[in-house]
């Protein structure tokens, strides 16, 4: 409930009849949309640069695109906030489900070991960063992104020593 109140407060959009969405072209420029997408891309960049540096399958581009795509889907769902018979939180759950399939593509079993779990989890975190950016939770996005990068770097180093 608090999340919906926050989204309602932060969402800036033209009020129109929901039955008209998508029928007529909307040529208006929404700076909030652009800024949220750029925030998501930036978060995906910081998360992905560490993966790229380590030469992982899902690197810079993948994490940036996953973050931007997640952000766009959540922004689109927020257009229906307040309409009857609509649950905008369903899109968040579908992002998680969809990213699960993408993450499964980087997990490989070789002999007695499994590779790609951390990369899959990182892609999942990039999707979460995109969702956070879509909700304009900038401080939370910065903290979350820093935490993901720190976990990958610190525990990557510890993993090599153990």
Automatic annotation (TrEMBL):
Membrane topology note: Multi-pass membrane protein
Spans through the membrane: 33-50, 62-82, 88-108, 115-135, 141-158
Domain of life assignment: Bacteria
Subcellular localization: Cell membrane
GO cellular component: plasma membrane
Record-annotated MgtC/SapB/SrpB/YhiD N-terminal domain positions: 37-158
Family: Belongs to the MgtC/SapB family.
Name of the protein described by the UniProt record: MgtC/SapB family protein
Protein's organism: Zobellia amurskyensis
